């Protein structure tokens, strides 16, 4: 994977040097424990972003520690929808984590940065990634059947509730809907949405996982 620092902190990050060091150690260890194709992609994406000065893509992407939790929660799911593509780092990781998996990702905006990172995929892996530029809270009008949904979009209460309601019927029995940034003070809308929907589920760090009965 090469050498280099994992420089993951936003310019407005207020953590102390010690807190940063601990966080960095956790992310480095988590990166090493990701499935090899995922870890290799994530590291290459980071290096590419750093080389290009693309701090936005680094800022919005799931970190390796969160990625481990997400991949575990979605293990064995072959049709996955992601709401909130951004620079497509997690989109690519979801595809690379399982060889036969099809990943559909929705965003209200086709962020141009994503092409830079999608280009890191082989043609065969890229063919398993399907991008849809529509508001997740409003569409798709007719969502395709999936085994798992990862909600990581606006983090606003109303939009998160609407996204869940749009996708719930499309999820197969036993499938999951996972909410990113749950129980995070920076994104109160996600926790409020889970509460408003009355969902029973499992909180894994800042990921809330709801399982559809059946
Ligand atoms: C935190 S980023 C997603 C990060 C990405 N999942 C990752 O891990 O790399 C949030 C994204 O959600 C998108 N977004 C905001 N509102 C949305 C909505 N209603 N439906 C779909 N995407 C939305 C934004 O344009 C942005 O790209």
Please count the beta strands (DSSP E, at least 2 residues each). 7
- Strand order in space, largest sheet: 3-2-1-4-5-7-6
User: CATH first level of the domain at 64-211: which class?
Assistant: Alpha Beta
Mean pLDDT: 92
For the sheet with most strands, the description reads: 7 strands, mixed
- Binned, the helix content reads 40-55%
Taken as a percent bin, the fraction of beta residues is 15-25%
CATH fold category name of the domain at 64-211: Rossmann fold
CATH superfamily of the domain at 64-211: Vaccinia Virus protein VP39
DSSP summary: helix tally: 9
Quaternary class: single chain
Shape: globular
Bound molecules: S-adenosylmethionine
Could you spell the SSE succession in H and E letters? HHHHEHEHHEEHEHEE
**Distance, first to last CA:** 41 Å
What does this protein look like?
By secondary structure, this protein is α/β, with parallel strands linked by helices. The chain has a domain at 64-211: Rossmann fold. Helix content is 42%, strand content 18%. It is built from nine helices and seven strands. Strands 3-2-1-4-5-7-6 form a seven-stranded mixed beta sheet, sandwiched between helices. Helix 5 (89-97) links the parallel strand 1 and strand 2 (102-107). It is globular and about 45 Å long. The mean pLDDT is 92.
């Amino acid at each position: 994977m090469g050498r280099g620092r994992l420089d993951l902190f936003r310019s407005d990050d207020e953590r102390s040097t010690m807190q940063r060091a601990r966080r960095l150690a956790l992310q480095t260890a988590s990166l090493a424990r990701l499935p090899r194709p995922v870890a290799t992609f994530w590291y290459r994406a980071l290096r590419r972003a750093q080389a290009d000065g693309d701090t936005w893509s680094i800022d919005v992407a799931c970190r390796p520690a969160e990625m481990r939790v997400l991949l575990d929660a979605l293990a064995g799911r072959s049709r996955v929808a992601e709401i909130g593509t951004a620079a497509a780092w997690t989109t690519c990781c979801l595809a690379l984590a399982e060889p036969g998996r099809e990943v559909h990702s929705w965003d209200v905006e086709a962020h141009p940065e994503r092409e830079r990172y999608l280009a890191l995929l082989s043609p065969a892996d890229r063919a398993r990634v399907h991008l849809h530029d529509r508001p997740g809270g409003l569409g798709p009008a007719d969502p395709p059947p999936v085994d798992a949904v990862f909600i990581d979009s606006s983090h606003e209460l109303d939009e998160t509730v609407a996204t869940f309601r749009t996708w719930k019927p499309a999820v197969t029995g036993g499938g999951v809907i996972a909410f990113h940034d749950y129980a995070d003070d920076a994104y109160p809308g996600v926790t409020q949405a889970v509460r408003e929907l009355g969902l029973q589920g499992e909180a894994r760090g800042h990921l809330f996982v709801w399982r559809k009965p059946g």
